[in-house]
Amino acid sequence: MAFSGQIQLPVSTDGSPQSAIMMNHTTRLRFTEHGLEKRKARRRCWPRDPACDHCHLRKIKCNSRHPECSQCTLYNVRCTYTPHIRKRRKDLRVQHKKLDDPVIVPGTGHVFLDQAMSAHRVPRPADITIDGEVSTRRDLPPASDLTILIDDYFANFNNVVPLFSEKSFRTMLHEWNQYPGHRDSITWACINVAMALAIQYHATNVRLSEPFGLDTFTKNTRSAIGDLVSQAVDLRSVQVLLGLTMLFQTKTDLQASSLLLATATKLAHRLRLHRKPEPGSPEDENASERACVFWLLFILDRDVSIKGQEPFLHRDADIEIDLPSTNQHGLTGVYHRDEGVWFNLFQARVHLARVQGCIYDWTYSTAAKDFTDEERRRNELCLTKSLGNWQRSIPEAFRYNRLSTNLPPFIFDHLLLLHFDYFHSVFKARRVYSDDPVWVWRLAEYSDQFALGWKQPITHMGCGPCPLAGKDAVAAPRQSPLPEGWNSLVDTARSCMGLWRQIDRHNDGLIRATLCVNTTAMIIIIANNLTLSEHSMHNEFLCDTELVSEVLDFSGKLVARSADDRMTKIHASHSELNRRAANAVALFFATKM
């Protein structure tokens, strides 16, 4: 058929080409709308996202862990999932919009809802907490108790751990009391975290009435986390997050501590706390407070890093501010009245944190996996020397072998934590720790030869699966599991367990914070009894056995109180390992007779 050069338009039933075009367009539009409806229907059938109610309401990422996701643990709220929460929120938004619209009241013109219906006040979204309960007022203890708490905090705790500037804090507290209309959640969180730290670290003897106490102050501080990270960057936000991190350290909650610390680090970077402020700038006016906050962040960062074997967040190369000193930063430190000696505990802790960073870099980092045996041995010797130099830098009156219980409780607690951090660093540097799977499972295999009679298998040591299972044996079952320099490790473990004896058994926070280090020391002593035939440290086995029994009895009570299945299995494995060590001791002395 030849092309005529004309375009023939479709003709409708009435003979009009335009009507035909409109008909075709309407038909296509109808099919397009039909397809859109089908897609919407399919979308409605898709499953909801796994975010819990709290994460969905705050529009944050949820890891959907059971029975409680990480965000709910961090914010201390109940973790729930409501399938139709979106529809309910949409309905609530519509209702609130209607309530916000002006209504006409006869004779008065346009009047807003809060004026026309003041007797029937409807709660706003800001008046409702995340878990659906009506939020409480920002109450504080009576003025007399509050004054004593804050005075004790700055006289005791803040002199050792300079989290706040006393002048700035008291100005903030005065404005809180004088101007109720200008109160904000960050100021409230600062006051609560200071009171919680004073109580947790025995810096005060104030007895508070219900509902005020450590748990209440901690919960109040946690409830303000959302405002800390969503409002303008403020030094106080970093201070509150660091205070919460210290409170969580006494609960051995590394995950929550890591999340809080990561948030505090990014806020500190935005505030450029790691940089020297320009002379005459606003930051230069509070340079001392900024420096103390940064070095406290530095300490906590390295401490959480080595405990969790995770990379620390701030590198040494990015730091250009000086270490805190007593004269520049107003730190009075710790004073030993009997010896007449001052000790800058905060500065000593910064130096230990530097060594902890080297321990991670040389022992647990990704690059450390490629080191040769000679490089590992050289690094281990260097770390051991650095830790020894650090220990010798402490005045003798404050060393762990001369620590006196006559010191004030808050100073004694801080010194205990300092020395347990040192013990922890020694064990980590030597890769002899309760969470090191290679050493622990090698020790368990070695103990099989002493499982006489009824054999209770050691299946759960709290350090992950056995890395030797299903592979060529890294070490034969009867090969010694002892590393080089074993005698010094045993002496350190004995000192650690002896110091642990001095902790008040009612001080739950300090016991939890030091339990893992003391468990490692206990396993080292058990290993020493298992291997009596391979070394000469036999004279103190009776004292060692008594120390181990005391720790096992106490940890058994803690496990029974917690009803934690995992902790029960770990305690059973430790008890079985100790039973085998007792058999090894009996066999050793039987063969010598």
From TrEMBL:
Domain Zn(2)-C6 fungal-type: 51-81
Lineage: Eukaryota, Fungi, Dikarya, Ascomycota, Pezizomycotina
GO cellular component terms listed in the entry, alphabetical order: nucleus
UniProt-listed CDD domains: fungal_TF_MHR, GAL4
Compartment(s): Nucleus
Transcription found in the keyword field: yes
Superkingdom classification of source: Eukaryota
UniProt name for this protein: Fungal-specific transcription factor domain-containing protein
Main location: nucleus
Assigned keywords, A-Z: DNA-binding, Metal-binding, Nucleus, Transcription, Transcription regulation
GO molecular function: DNA binding; DNA-binding transcription factor activity, RNA polymerase II-specific; zinc ion binding
Pfam families, per database record: Fungal_trans, Zn_clus
Annotated GO biological process: DNA-templated transcription
Species of origin: Stachybotrys elegans
